[in-house]
Amino acid sequence: MLGNTFGRIFQITTCGESYGWHATAEDPGNWGGSLFCIVNGVPPGIKLDVKRIQDELFKRRPGQSKLDSPRKETDIVEVVAGLQEGITTGAPVGLLVRNVDTQDIHVQQYRDVKDVVRPGHAELNFLYKYGEHGDWCGAGRASGRETVGRVAGGAVAKQILARENIEILAHVIESHGIKGRSVAEGTMTFEELKANYRKNDLNCCDLDQAKVMIADLLKVRDAGDTAGGTIEIIARGVPAALGEPVFDKLKATIAHGLCSIGAMTGLEFGSGAAAARTLGSEWNDQPVLEDGKVRFQTNHSGGFSGGMSNGEDLIIRMYVKATPTISKQQDTVDLKTMQAKKLAAVTRRDISICPRIYPVAEAMVACSVLDALYMSRAWYGVARLDPKWEGLTGPRNKGEYTK
Ligand SMILES: Cc1cc2nc3c(=O)[nH]c(=O)nc-3n(C[C@H](O)[C@H](O)[C@H](O)COP(=O)(O)O)c2cc1C
What we know:
Elements: E1 5-6, E2 11-15, E3 21-22, E4 30-31, E5 34-40, H1 50-60, E6 77-81, E7 83-84, E8 87-88, E9 93-98, H2 104-112, H3 123-130, H4 147-162, E10 167-175, E11 178-179, H5 190-196, H6 207-222, E12 229-236, H7 250-259, E13 264-269, H8 280-283, E14 287-290, E15 293-296, E16 304-305, E17 308-309, E18 314-320, E19 330-334, E20 339-343, H9 354-382
Antiparallel strand pairs: 1-2, 2-5, 3-4, 5-9, 6-9, 7-8, 10-11, 10-12, 12-18, 13-18, 14-15, 16-17, 19-20
The structure holds flavin mononucleotide (FMN).
Flavin mononucleotide binds near residues 69 and 143.
């Protein structure tokens, strides 16, 4: 399998599957492998807070409410490389999370349908690509479990970004067509988002609408079905001019990161699709001078200009489809008999992926922004700029590029 690394200078490389297999020289092994993330590009001298990595993983952990998969994973992270007496050494950081809930009964449920295509899932393409020895248990690396490594690596990125006063938060703004308030629409402030962050099982920061959404999802669950929704991601404190102007626009790097997450079906930046229906006179974010810095009266662009950051909040929406695994009967094919078949899945699943995916989105935006920051610093390390431009860049640029 290729393509398990994300990033150019700050890089995460992940491995590990939904169930996996654990073997030693003495023991041919059993179900229950591990998920692993190698983080490249961590500076030396950082007091890595392992509790903060753990907290990020706890946001994503299954079995926290009736909305997520009942799978009982502890998701305990072990830092196994790159640290000395709690401080990073500049060597790659190795993060390990063991799969612990891989019981035979669940393996058997997957074995029973291993030749039956699960509608909406990625397994058929895995079979086309890897043949009969491809991983059939719990969807292998097409499982949401793959995202553990991203969240662990993203948690390291977040700690480095925090030193730069950059903060990334995501929340659910729509579930199964039920809308909540959002920062992009100006119906919620970033401060309210922060205050209400993770106050309910869905992590919808519009607390009233969250109750309606959760009640609806429980009905969806009782009907044997699943539902999709929308995540809003805000990155605050991102300095202006991050991202390279052509192929490596910050917008493109973030899109790469977010589009690599399973179950996402669309992205919008700022006012997104609405921009296509808006006049230039309505859409343009008009610059104003504020304390000698360039700010904007509105943020329809979602904090991007020329694909690079403009110093305002980055605002991104990510659309998430309904969980493919459902108990309702659907048409499919059996690849062993090459006959039509009906499938009503019995395997464990999330009723909505939204309460599980928002920390993954935060992680991928964190890795993208940090990688772009490293690229910018590398560029400014060799380029010499005229200091007179320094004060004109965005409000949160502390002149860090122009030395
Ligand atoms: C955090 C997370 C949790 C997921 N949970 C499930 C699940 O419980 N059941 C399921 O069928 N798919 C789940 N998925 C979705 C699949 O991983 C993925 O959507 C599926 O393989 C199809 O891939 P595609 O949507 O990219 O085509 C989850 C995805 C993520 C990111």
